[in-house]
Write a structure and sequence with these properties.
This protein has about 525 residues and is of the alpha+beta class. The protein is about 45% helix and about 20% strand.
Length: about 525
Amino acid sequence: KQVARKFSSSGLTDTYFIKALEEAKFIPSSYAIVFTGSLDTIGKIKKLMDELDTVSKRSQLEDNMLIYKLKFLSKKGLDQALESYAETLPIDSPIQETIEQRSFLAQSNSFVFKGTQTNLDRLKEILDLTDTSTNSKEQLLMYRIKNSNESLVLENLKNYAADLSSHDAIYDSLTKYKYNPTSHLLIFKGSQDILKAIESLMASLDQITPESLETLNYKVISENFKLVLDNLKKVQDRMNKTDPLYQVLKSAQVIESSHLMIFKGDESTLKSLKDLLSKVDSNDPVVLENLPTQQIYNLKYSTGKTMMKNLEIIRHKLEKDPNFSQADLLETLKNIELVKATNSLIITGPKKDVNQVITYIQQFDISDQENKNVEQILNYKIKNSNPDAVVEKLKAYVENLQSSEPTYEPLKNAKYVPSSKLIIFKGTQTDLNAITALMGNFDPASELTGEEAPTHYVYSLKNASGDVVIKYLETLKSKIKRDKNNLDPILIQTLSDVEWVPQNQTLYIAGPKKYVDQV
C-alpha cells in the first residue's frame, strides 16, 4: 500500500498497476498476498515483489521506503553519483547502507531505498540536487566536507578559484558547484579529468581541523607597531590563499593599544608563524626583502611537465657550478609545485629568487614562432676518422662566406672540442637545421657507402619528453640483449650512443645508416 501511494504521487500513469497494488489482499494463514489484474499487470507485480520481498530481518521490514523516479539522469548516471558519494561516508554510516541496498524498478524507471525517515529525507535532498537537466549532460563529483569548519573550506575554495583565469578549464566547475549544508555535500560537474583534479584539490583544501586550536599571543617589540602590521600585510598578500599560515594571519586579532596580536592555529602553523613574526618585527629591509613569498605562474605555451624538466636541468647546472652560492634560489627551484589541472606553477621563496625563477620560466614559455628565434645549441659529433680535416674544411668554408649570410655567425663562433670530436654551434633552430645539413657534406664518415656507411640523424621530439624516450630505448636494448638468437651488437651500440639534447628537445642518433634508420 505504501508503494502504491508513492507510485501514485510520483505521476506513474499505469492506473491498472496501481489499482492492483491498492486492492491486494493478505491471507495470514498462508502468509500470502493475492493480486488481481491482467497478465501484463501481474507480470509487473511479480518483478516488484522480487525486489521488495528480499529482507529476512523483521526490523528491516519496519524501515520506511523511498521510491525515487528518475527525471533527467540515466540509471547509470545516478548509480555513479551515488557510489562516489557513498565512498565519502564512514563504513558504518546508515546512509551508506541505504545506498548500497537500493534496488531499481525498470518498469517505472525508479529506485527503491529503505531506511529510517531521517536518512531517507537526507537522501532525497541529495537526489534532487543531483538529478537535474544540467547534470545529465556532464559527470558529477559529490564531495562531502570533512573539516569541522566548513566555512573555512568554502573560503579556501573561493580564494583558489579567484586566483584562476575565467578561461581555465577548471574555473566553471569550481565556481558553479552546488552546496548542501545539511549533508555537508559539494556537487561539482565537469569532464572526468576536471573532476579528478577537483577531487585532488579538495583533499588539500579540506584538511581536518584539530578539535582544539592553540593560541599564540605575540607582543610586537618594534616601536613602530603600524609598520610591522603593514609589513605583515605585504607578506600575507604574497601568500597562496590556501596556505594554512595565510588563514591564521587573516583571522588574527589586533589590540593596537598594547601592541598585541592574537593568533589561533595548529601547533605546526604557529611554529612557522613565530619565525615569520620575529623577522617582520625586526623591520630590517634586507630581512624583509628575503621573506618568503608565493606566486602562481599560469603557463601560456609550454606544458607543465616540459617546464618542470627544463627547470630541473637549470637547477642541476647551478648545483654543479663551483662559483654559484645562492642556496635560496636552489631551494626555490626545488620547491616549485605543478598544478596539472590549470597548467600552472606555484613558486615559493624570497621575492628576488621568485622573480629570478619567473625569468627562467619566461625563457621557455614561448610560442612556436618565438621558439624558432631563440638561440639554441647543437652538439655535432664528427664521424670521420680524421676530425681535424673536417674542421679545416669548415674553416675554409666560413672564410669564403659573406657575413650577411644567416649561418655566418653560428659557424664563425663554433667551438671545437678535440677530445670528444664535438663541434658546438649556437643559433636559432632554423640556423642549426641548415648547419646540420651542411655538415653532412663536410663530414663523410668513411669510404663505406650504402647501408653500412656511418651517418647521423637529428630527431626533433614532438610529444614525448627526451628522458622518457631514452628510458624506452634502454628497455628495448635490454630486450635485444636477452634475445640470444637475434643478438645484434651494432644495433645495441647504436642504441647506446643515442644522445638527448634537452636545450632543443632533440635526439642525436649516429651509426651505420640501416641501424640509424631502425632506431
